Structure formats: structure tokens, C-alpha cells
Amino acid sequence: PRRSPACHVRMAGPEGTKTYELWVDFRAQRLKKPQRTLQVSCGKVSLSPADGAASSLQAPQVKEGLLQLARGLREKFTKIGVEMPKGKLVNGVIVDKKFAKEVLEDLRDLQTPVYTARKEVDGETMHGSGFFVCTAADGKPVACLAPKQVRLSSTMPHAEEDVYGLEEDSSKEDREKQEAEEMQRYKEGLDDPSKYVLPPRKRMRELFGLPPEPRKPNKDRLLAKTLPPDALLWGRALMDRQRTGPVGYNLVIDRDAKATPISRRS
After folding, report:
1. Is pLDDT larger for residue 157 or for residue 102?
2. Residue 92 in contact with residue 112, Cβ under 8 Å?
3. How far is the C-alpha of 99 from the C-alpha of 91, rounded, in Å?
4. Beta strand 92-95 with 124-125: parallel, antiparallel or unpaired?
5. What is the pLDDT of residues 132-161, one digit of tens each?
């Protein structure tokens, strides 16, 4: 099967175990505490605001957060007498779109890949609660983030969020070209009944007043997992990845300038 040009398979380790990347999630919704108190009044349930809700207005201190994460991991692995997993600890970070420029500048010397999560790109949306994962530098969509957790308590631990490849391998331009060709055949059939074909899917949605068909993730192509900068969560994630080695893909944004994310020597 064809693969998106933004991805390639990486074989890790002497046994050729396939792996996935780990990204630090610095989005405000993954850093601040959730709404913490349930209040029942007149048959309605409401949530009181969490402390630090204003954090969504301030750019995260990503570089310092990465350094603290590396220190915290070293301390925890040393404490339990286990050797740190070898290789790169952090393969990328994901931030809110409005902070992308500041974070890119902050991480320039580390050359850590920076991504953003967006609900809409060029009029296209993702299926369900998914987000487009875009490169922070140019906003190009390269993957899909699939949230799978709603935290109702500050004691409830964060879960990993999976990043998958997009279902279609073709570019937006290729899809538009194919849609135009299908529409041309449909119009020819309206003039000549012998050539009639059913309307293309896009036209059918327009006729019924439906929004454009959302893009879908390809859940057979796991690219990465995202976690907030918590040393305990990251320690578990690193050990899980080393132990299980699920099938996955690597994002390749710039083949000529390989990124060098934080390593265990940071």
C-alpha cells in the first residue's frame, strides 16, 4: 500500500522492532487542572473552574519544561535502580497554535520538532473529536490526534493520546483533481442519459445540505503518543515502548535537516 510522503517506517533495534515517537504535550488543556468540583443544583450539574485557568493565556515554558522532564526522569530511574532507556527521550512537542511562533524560537537551538493541533485546516475538518496535527512552522497537516480521555477529577491521571496517519494518502490537490474529474463525468451524464453516473460523494453531501466529509485517521498507522511533561507518566511510557514496540511510523518533515530532540544526555 502507498504511504503518505510525510512518513516512513523506522526499524528500531537489532531485532527490527517497529516503534513510535513520544511527544510532550504542552497544550493548555493538557497542562492545567481540569474543572474540579461537581455542583448539583435544580437538577443540573455544573463544574467549578479549576485553579490556573489563566494558563491558557500564557505561552508555556517549553524549553525549561523539557529540561525539568529530563532531570525528573533521571531521578526516578536512579531511585528505582533501573537504567534509563537508551536513545532519544523526546521526539517532538505539541503546543497551542497561538504559541507556535514563540515555542519555535524557544527551541531553535534544540531543533526539537514542534507541532500544533487544529480542528480545521483549509476548510477541512477531522472526524469526531479528532484534531489535525500540523507542523508549527508552516501549518501543513501531517497527521491526526485522536483524544480518548475526559478528566473529571484532578486525581485522575492523564492518559496518552495517539497520533495516527491520515486515512488518505493523496494530497489535497490530488483529491480536488479527482473530485473535479468525477464531477465532470456526472455533468456529462446529465446531458447524455447513456453516460449517467451517480453524483460524486461531495456533490451528494451538497445536495442534502451536509457539510464537507471530514477526514479520518488511519488507525493502522500509529505515528506517536503525546503526554504532558510529567516524569512519572513519561517513565511508564518509555518502558512500555521499550517493552512492547508496537507498529508505527516516523514523521519526516525535513529530510535534509534531521531533528535532534532531547536525549538522555540533556
Report:
1. 102
2. yes
3. 19
4. unpaired
5. 999 999 999 999 998 766 655 555 666 789
